[in-house]
Amino acid sequence: MLLQLGNPVVTGLSYADRAESYKRRTWSLGEKYIKEYNAWFLQQQTQFLLGRDNFNGFLNFMGHLSFQCDKLLGDRETISFLQRERYDMAILDAFNPCSFILAHKLGVRYVAFYPGTLNGPLSIALPSPVSYIPVFGSQLSDHMNLWGRAKNVFYSFLAPVGQEIVWSIFKDVAERHLESGPPADGLNDLHQGAELWAFNTDFSLEFPQPLMPYTVLVGGLLNKPANPLEQDLELWISSFGEAGFIVVTLGSMVASVSVDPLLVELVAGFSRIPQGVLWRYDTRQWPHHMDRPPNVRLVDWLPVNDLLGHKKARLCITHGGQNSLLQAVYHAVPVLGIPLFGDQFDNVVRAETKGLGLTIKPTHVTRELLSATIQTLIEDIRFKSSALSLSRIHKSHPVSPSLRLVQWVEHILHSGGGTHLRPASLAQPWYQRCILDLLLLLCMGLLGPVAVCWTLCRCKNSRNRPKKIQ
């Protein structure tokens, strides 16, 4: 990205002669583990499609990441290679705790890139009033009724517990591979050690909320003007005339639908609409007994950005991944969300609240509901109007997401770190940030004299009460 953007904004930094020195190193656990992991994930994928996304599945996934982390940090050759490079800065995947442990082992400063919305990390002291900022997993919008706020408060108590459980999975890895031992405050210390936090979101899709100086929104890194499509694909699209076509992608991790009843309903629903359906699907996994409707085309890979930027793109059916939604916003294409796991449920709530589209849970998909919802999204002008409005908001930002990220990374490098962006609240315990210690002191100051007066009055009344004659 730095090389593509050319000359940096900060003087004194140059990438012009660094293309030759760019190195890529691959690391793998071997075919045996990869096969075992893929088999596990296929089973997990089936659970997602059956609507059984749960915390245990997430913890199992974290267990796999922890195992991979242990093997990576124990690979002396790879670690020695990374240490010899003497990096000035690392940009981390903040979803995976291993990234932070690796940065600590290398002794390198780091910028945390979180691939989701602002409600993900809990320990970076973002102002998050639960009255209007939904907690991760709550599936709420920023406009909550009484019961919605009650649910949000409940989730706000569960969230830090979940974070501690996740850290417990990685704590042993940190003990084995960090000379200084695991951080005293676990993930909190690792998160707060970042010089900067970059979030893959944008206020065209995100709920408005306060930010801190060390946070920057860079949602839309993959967005760009569409390139022309290949000729055979263009001919296929033109065969549907003004009806246009629909892009269907359930994410890179769900390449096929392993639940037959769901697949039957999806295919039957698509066969009822006049639009072409371009579906990212592993063709090797398509059931031999099932026919494909003439308007459905399966492809192993989709140039999603180029397809959504096509003038005849009418709708994007997506799992609710953040990148897919931001690409739909950029190209002003309405979406139908079918969320499967993780943050996707929260993401599609944002899309629906903003008027970008509608949502159907995988367990609720029927051919009638699917075809009717598709036609509503295409024919109701309100969805296209909202998409155009959100696209204008996203595109009218004076600095592109990629340049925004590069400028901030350069700023951190040039200024010697991000200490000047870190408020004192990061070092405060949660009860001090919420002024609970002061409130407790005030309560004691007010209730103390009341208690003393009540005790004195009670003693006086007991002395004045006439004694019974026995």
UniProtKB/TrEMBL annotation:
Residue spans crossing the bilayer: 438-457
Locations listed in the record: Membrane
Enzyme Commission code(s) on record: 2.4.1.17
SUPFAM superfamilies linked to this entry: UDP-Glycosyltransferase/glycogen phosphorylase
One Pfam family linked to the record: UDPGT
Gene Ontology molecular function terms on file: glucuronosyltransferase activity
Gene3D superfamilies from the UniProt entry: Glycogen Phosphorylase B (3.40.50.2000)
UniProt keyword list: Glycoprotein, Glycosyltransferase, Membrane, Signal, Transferase, Transmembrane, Transmembrane helix
Enzyme type, top EC level: transferase
GO CC annotation terms, alphabetical: UDP-N-acetylglucosamine transferase complex
Reactions catalysed: glucuronate acceptor + UDP-alpha-D-glucuronate = acceptor beta-D-glucuronoside + UDP + H(+)
Family label: Belongs to the UDP-glycosyltransferase family.
Protein name in the entry: glucuronosyltransferase
Originating organism: Acanthochromis polyacanthus (spiny chromis)
